[in-house]
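=== RUN LOG ===
request id: a7f3
mode: sequence -> structure
chains: 1
length: 118
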Amino acid sequence: MINIISYIFKLLFSAILGGSMTYSPSIAHQDTSVIKTAILCVISAAIFGGIILTPDHLQSGLAFGSLVMLSAIVYKVDIPIIKAVAAIVAGMLIGLGFPIFGILFTILMIFLNRYTLR
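=== RESULT ===
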């Protein structure tokens, strides 16, 4: 039971971090990239969180298959590739059980998103 509760918290936490990665108050009304990056982050956290629950001999095949599936999802989503990959990496870090690294990576991406020249 505790595993399910922690898994749900991982998914909620990844949704919050994924949405905060591309949030900008000036364009929050008309842009859907916040929702798309949050969904990518949740999907990535769900997949990689499920991979660590499987036996050892299945993990490498599931990891390869999930990366192929995530690349197909990124191909269909119409956000910049850098933001999509950043959302997947943040979700992967949270799903694998490294929330501190996920937070640090998200903060880095927020700074890069807001303070670089466009």
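=== NOTES ===
Residues 2-23+32-115 form one domain.
The chain has one domain: 2-23+32-115.
=== END ===
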